[in-house]
Design a protein that fits this description.
By secondary structure, the chain is mainly α. The protein has helices spanning 4-24, 26-47, 50-63, 68-80, 84-92, 99-117, 136-157, 203-222, 229-240, 256-260, 269-289, 293-302, 308-316, 320-336, and strands at 126-131, 165-170, 188-189, 193-196. The chain folds into three domains: 25-117, Serine Threonine Protein Phosphatase 5, Tetratricopeptide repeat (Alpha Horseshoe), CATH 1.25.40; 119-205, no CATH class; 223-337, no CATH class. It contains 14 helices and four strands. Bound molecules: zinc ion. Zinc ion binds at residues 212, 216, 233, 236.
Length: 337
């Protein structure tokens, strides 16, 4: 026993030393850094945060210059930023080809061709991509309305996005008829602003939708993740002003958790409408506490990893549960007045 004990002790000390060395060795640190970079790149790609994604992927390419997957990703990131010449040049410089690279090169070339045919440069704040045939007057009309909306949002938030906003214009046969009322879901923001260009003629109808979707683009540029859904949709609805007078939906008040998750999970329309209603009212209550959009911008910027309530308390003296309670109360009032 006496002989074994010191031996065991040495064994424990040596293996602890090995463990500590492994955890702090240059290889372990490199591995950790690599893993963190991969995770960050993946998140930014998913969120359409292209500038950060490009930085990450270029960094990873320094470690693994021959990784074909990374090379394809970089081509895609350049394309998504509307840097079509850069994308073509990058694809050209590869020592391999695959279907993805072929697609990105072909698409980049056709967009460049269309822009030249329309005699159109990107506008001041938007990078434009076309789907289908375009008429120059439609495109110019769409861009002029968007630029106006952009200016008012930039002034309101005192914020000028670093990236150009990527705009996909498409021509849809649905909106050809004069006086027809186009579908609500015509424009969306999914990292790109997608709009049917010929629906722009319905100005009265279109303006709020445009402001709504562009607000999402601004919010993403201010903070590309960690913004709770109620705040994102609430701000967009305050800006578009279209549902301000909607009555309180029937049924129970939804939970804060439900209002934080993406609303698309809500299966039926009335369920989703309820979440939109509460989002708007909660955000209105927040603006009642302080009407500054610059402060709202600072709140958005400081959100990270589910710290919404602590940031709300610090900046506004409320949390989301309290905002929800006030929202429910405000709706109760409006039923009687
Ligand atoms: Zn929205």
């Amino acid at each position: 026993m006496r002989k074994i004990l010191p031996f065991l002790l040495i064994l424990v000390i040596v293996s602890a030393g090995v463990l500590i060395y492994q955890r702090h060795s240059p290889e372990a640190k490199r591995f950790e850094r690599h893993e963190a970079l991969v995770k960050d790149a993946k998140e930014r790609l998913d969120a359409g945060e292209w500038i950060g994604a490009e930085r990450d992927v270029r960094e990873l390419l320094k470690e693994m210059p021959d990784d074909t997957n990374l090379q394809v990703h970089l081509a895609g990131i350049l394309y998504e930023q509307g840097r079509y010449e850069d994308c073509i040049a990058w694809v050209d410089g590869r020592s391999f080809r695959n279907a993805d690279l072929d697609f990105l090169e072909k698409k980049s070339k056709s967009i460049l061709y269309e822009m030249r045919a329309l005699n159109l440069e990107d506008s001041r704040h938007f990078r434009v991509e076309f789907e289908g045939e375009m008429e120059r007057t439609d495109v110019v009309e769409a861009l002029s309305v968007l630029e106006t909306a952009y200016d008012s949002l930039a002034r309101l938030f005192d914020f000028y996005p670093e990236n150009k906003i990527h705009l996909v214009l498409y021509r849809s046969a649905e909106y050809q008829g004069v006086g027809e009322h186009p579908d609500w879901a015509a424009a969306i923001f999914d990292g790109k602003l997608r709009m049917p260009v010929n629906a722009m003629r319905f100005r009265e109808w279109y303006r709020p939708i445009l402001f709504h979707e562009l607000t999402h683009a601004f919010i993403q540029a201010i903070k590309w993740k960690d913004v709770p859904l109620w705040l994102n949709e609430g701000i967009a609805q305050v800006i578009d002003g279209s549902r301000i007078h909607d009555p309180r939906p029937r049924g129970a008040v939804p939970s804060v958790e439900l209002l934080t998750e993406p609303f698309v999970r809500e299966k039926n329309i009335s369920g989703a409408e309820k979440l939109y209603w509460y989002s708007l009212r909660m955000t209105q209550e927040l603006l009642r506490a302080d009407p500054s959009f610059v402060k709202l911008r600072d709140l958005l910027r400081s959100l990270s990893g589910g710290n919404t309530d602590s940031r709300l308390r610090e900046l506004y003296g409320v949390d989301s549960a309290e905002l929800l309670r006030r929202a429910a109360d405000s709706g109760r009032d409006s039923l009687f007045h």
